[in-house]
Amino acid sequence: MRPRARQVARAVGLAGLLALGAGCFSLNHGPAPLYIGTVNDSPPLAFRDGRRWKGVEIELARAFADRLGVRPVFVALPSADLLPALLDGRVDLLMAGLAVTEERRVQIDFAAPYLVVGQAVLVRRADLPRVHTDIKIRSSPARAAVVEDSAGDHLITRYFPRASRYPFPNPDAAVDALLQGRVDMVVSDAPTLWWKAGQKPADLALAPPLFAREEIAWGFRRGSVGLRESANHALADWQQDGTLERILRQWMPISP
Questions:
Q1: Which residues contact 179 (CB under 8 A, 6 or more apart)?
Q2: Which of 114, 154, 191, 192 has fewest C-beta within 10 Å?
Q3: Where do the domains of the chain lie, and which CATH numbers do they carry?
Q4: Is the pLDDT of residue 10 over 60?
């Protein structure tokens, strides 16, 4: 079957599924696939651990697919290819820790946001009393570790004018430097630091507040109204019954 024909068949199958509210089965008598565009290098939201998919978005995707009676198929994509893959029909939706921005709203639709993130500050727990308020952390002449060319790197001079910038290739290296006393704080994406703090709660702590806040949501092609509304209903139910909170705390035990 040609790519375009596969896209049409998939769209028809999903539309029928959502219209009937029942499980959808393919011609080989198995659950129809739901192609989910995601990333494989963004813990704790979505990542690969060997051959296994893990993370917040992965757990939510499996729960959503189970609710629809379809089979989740995770498609790993570079961040720059997420929207193109959705728009040209290679995937049915995006579950990749996607921030809701005005630029993206012009191209795609979003489900209701399920998480507020931003840039966070990680410190050694013993140092927390010195930087436990917004004013103290902003005015600290600290050695600040950042992932080079990341959002935290771009914001360091704006939010921490007295800090000295120490670039690292990845969050793991930055956190190791913090634990070894070579830097005084790490500025990075909040989910990453929530996850890291949860791994070593006796040694690491988060300094308030969040900077450059943004909302995380799932992305849909324009016209995928049924699928998007099913996602909104699922999220509302999970907020009500505690499923969403349980999954978030599983991967980010230390978070607001």
A1: 124, 200, 203, 204
A2: 154
A3: 3-114+217-251 (3.40.190.10), 116-214 (3.40.190.10)
A4: no
Give the tens place of pLDDT for each residue, 18-73.
Answer: 433 334 444 455 789 999 999 999 999 999 999 999 999 999 999 999 999 999 99
Angstrom distance (rounded) from CA 86 to CA 35: 10
Task: Provide the pLDDT confidence category of residue 242 given band limits of 50, 70 and 90.
Answer: very high
Describe the strand order of the beta sheet including 143-147 as a list of residue ranges.
164-168, 143-147, 185-189, 115-124, 204-216
127-142 per-position pLDDT tens digit: 999 887 888 888 889 9
- Mean pLDDT score, 167-182: 97
Which pairing describes strands 52-54 and 185-189: parallel, antiparallel, or unpaired?
unpaired
Angle at 97 between CA 174 and CA 232, to 5 degrees: 155
Q: Is 85 helix (H, G, I), strand (E, B) or coil?
A: helix
3-state DSSP helix/strand/coil % of the chain, to nearest 5: 45, 25, 30
- Per-residue pLDDT at 256: 61
What pTM, to 2 d.p., does this model score? 0.85
Structure tokens at 134: 């917004």
**What is the C-alpha radius of gyration for the chain, rounded to an integer number of angstroms?**
20
Q: How far apart are CA 144 and CA 162, in angstroms?
A: 10
How far CA 125 is from CA of 121, 203, 207, in Å, comes to 12, 5, 9
Residues with Cβ < 8 Å from 121, sequence gap 6 or more? 131, 137, 185, 186, 187, 193, 206, 207, 211
The tokens of 72 are what? Answer: 């989740």
